[in-house]
Amino acid sequence: MTMPPVKYQRGDMVMGRWPGSSLYYEVKVLAFDSKSQLYTVIYKDGTELELKEQDIKSTAGFQPRSRSRSRSPGRRRSRSRSPARTTRRSSSRTAAAVAAAAITDSAVSSRRDTRLKDVEVMLSPVVSFIMFCHRTDDARKTTEAEPEKNQGRYNLRRRKDDGDAKPAETRPEQLEEKEAKRVGALASTLSTPLDFGGKIGAYFWLLFLPAWVFFLVLQVNREDPSLTNFPPPLPPLEAFWDAQALGFVILWILFQALLYVTPVGKLSEGMPLRSGERLKYRTNGFFAIVVSAITVAAAVHQGVDLTYIHSHFLQLATASLLISILLSVYLYIRSRYAAPEQLALGGNSGNVVYDFFKGHELNPRIKNFDLKFFCEMRPGLIGWCLINFAMALAEMKQHGLDAPSNSMILVNLFQLLYVVDGLWNEEAILTTMDLMHDGFGFMLAFGDLVWVPFTYTMQAYYLVSHPNPLIVGFYIFRKSNSEKNAFRRNPADPRLSHLKTIPTATGKSLLVSGWWGVVRHPNYLGDLLMALAWSLPCGFSHLLPWYYMIYFIILLVHRDSRDMSDCRRKYGSAWDEYCRTVRYRIIPRVY
Ligand SMILES: NC(=O)C1=CN([C@@H]2O[C@H](COP(=O)(O)OP(=O)(O)OC[C@H]3O[C@@H](n4cnc5c(N)ncnc54)[C@H](OP(=O)(O)O)[C@@H]3O)[C@@H](O)[C@H]2O)C=CC1
Ligand SMILES: CC(C)=CCC[C@@H](C)[C@H]1CC=C2C3=C(CC[C@@]21C)[C@@]1(C)CC[C@H](O)C(C)(C)[C@@H]1CC3
């Protein structure tokens, strides 16, 4: 019997499909086993795999398409780059991977298809090829249908010399900076699947979220503030509005902005953007809360009556809502003019309401003033503590106490600890979903400026008129967030060398032991335990103080499922392997 000729030879550089995904990366053929008909290939991050011939493409397979259009010497040069030359810029490599992931998960419309064609010619072979795969609908369907089937077929193993301590942060493909920018531009033209119930969902949330805040605020003032009660009668519209309250909110935001721009504290680098650039952030949050506390203490000492916050809670919430709407309109308009590589992958559905809600620009900045980072970490978060403190004063005033009740002190302390910890470890926010992946739109602006300060303070508010194991949660929350942050910043960190990792085709590795080996979101587990601690001091006579706990379970379960599908798209079968190893999502042995 004659054997078919071996198509690829040892040493050939070809494109190998990453199992379980539709991404192709440059690989080198190491061997061919005629018995199993499998090629052993090696990716640039050192991962060896056995691939079937159908999962390998020659680089030439897609070049003619680009070549016919790309005539400039510059472009030709970038295609003929030798592997040695490609190792120049590590940051741009991230760009390619992100773009690749974006391309993978997109439902590429025919309108976009045309745009793709135009951009494709400018890209490196790797990206061009990925795009080529995505343009062929049938091929896409096949590759997307296959992952489950593939799972057992590939033999994923690490190179023997690739110890755990060794960082796997090298990319299989690398782009020059210019190319990376174009890749960024391309990625931004593609839309990720719509979250939050899509376009209809966006309408719903836009109306529901502010309504819910007002419902809570009106409900908590009642004698029997049960969440299951009928909504309280709506007060007259003018009861919502107070110009002075708006003035105070503006003053507070300006004060926080002043502290943010004060050149005190560290300048931290964010994660590489698609363009390869790393933005700098002034992480002086701890300084900001200390100065805020001193200023507030001085004001109280001077006779300023902070219980105004309790008595004008509704008007302050309305003022903050107004500001968050104006800010979101501004963000939406500027996102329409932003350079493509500055845009997040979501928020470009073409539907004004959805895009307004979700947000499209990733890091809107006015000069060096980062609006998203500022809003997420300052006025609302520090405002949360200010409001809690004001509630303690209101409780004392209302009940003629010399000191706040024990429950009030506990709630204040627990939540203060949470916020101070967030600000002390402010740098860690740079590796969270919000900062890395989500655009800045109404959802976050409203979340930061209204939702956090006016709903997270419900327990303290409740305790004003309803006098009435858990440090472990904080410990888990902080340790797990810091572990991942340290690992993402420096995978070779000697303090993390004992941790096991799974390499992925994107070059990033996944932690599979330590906190991230206990459950897939240990940070959510810690956060939930903390939420429990905040509600327990309020007792069980009403549902309202448990509102945060209930909301938080919904929020984190939803975030977890969003993150699972994002990571599944990004990391393909490496993610499946992680999920097989770490079986539970948030609560060990339960969920
Ligand atoms: N109080 C509140 O209202 C809220 C609090 N939070 C808290 O904020 C914190 C951050 O949460 P959030 O941004 O949602 O999510 P994460 O900090 O968990 O970020 C998710 C990202 O981390 C990376 N990642 C996931 N698994 C691994 C792994 N095994 N090894 C290495 N990297 C991994 C992936 O990004 P990549 O691989 O691209 O780096 C993933 O997209 C949490 O503690 C959460 O509880 C969050 C929301 C609301
Ligand atoms: C329903 C709705 C409008 C949701 C918006 C969600 C936002 C309220 C939250 C999204 C992620 C957040 C984070 C924090 C606060 C709440 C929001 C903005 C956070 C700043 C709290 C302090 C923590 O230490 C943290 C820095 C880890 C955390 C980051 C995520």
From TrEMBL:
Transmembrane domains' residue ranges: 200-220, 240-262, 283-301, 313-333, 436-454, 531-557
Signal peptide: none
Enzyme Commission identifier(s): 1.3.1.70
Top-level taxon of origin: Eukaryota
Pathway the protein acts in: Steroid biosynthesis; cholesterol biosynthesis
BP GO terms, sorted: cholesterol biosynthetic process
Protein name, as recorded: Delta(14)-sterol reductase LBR
Organism: Anabas testudineus
Gene: LBR
